[in-house]
Amino acid sequence: MPCLNISTNVNLDGVNTSAILSEASSQVAKIIKKPESYVMIVLKGSVPISFGGTEQPAAYGELVSVGGLNSDVNNKLSSAIATILESKLSVPKSRFFLKFFDAKGSHFGWNGSTF
User: Fold this and answer.
1) Which sequence spans correspond to the domains of the chain?
2) In the beta sheet, which residues pair with residue 40?
3) Active centre residues (catalytic)
4) Residue 35: which residues within 8 A CB-CB, separation 6 or more?
């Protein structure tokens, strides 16, 4: 049930978003060591974003997971997702923030219940 939400000011028209979603899902599952069947990736494009006073390509992400996060894992996730955004959307690694939330199972709904 890790969920990665990414917002970017890059226009996604003509972009192979399936490749981004697939690669991000695979990396999140592998790094957090959770089944990929529980991983959700949300990608929103054309979001107005100013970073450092400019509207050059940038992105912001939030990753929520019930367990599996720590400083080493977060560092690996940040690197992996930044690499994907840089290679697929030309968002420089220096223009991407990723915030991590380690949620309690009782604060995460799924399948009509909580974890």
Assistant:
1) 2-114
2) 3
3) 2
4) 29
Contact yes or no for 3/40 (Cβ under 8 A): yes
* Lookup result for tokens 């604060």: 107
Q: What tokens appear for 87 in the block?
A: 């290679």
For the whole prediction, is pTM greater than 0.90? yes
According to the 3-state scheme, what is the secondary structure of 66-97? Answer: CCCCCHHHHHHHHHHHHHHHHHHHCCCHHHEE
Residues 15-50: tens digit of each pLDDT: 999 999 999 999 999 999 999 999 999 999 999 999
- d(CA 29, CA 34) in angstroms, rounded, equals 5
Check: CATH 3.30.450.40 for 2-114? no
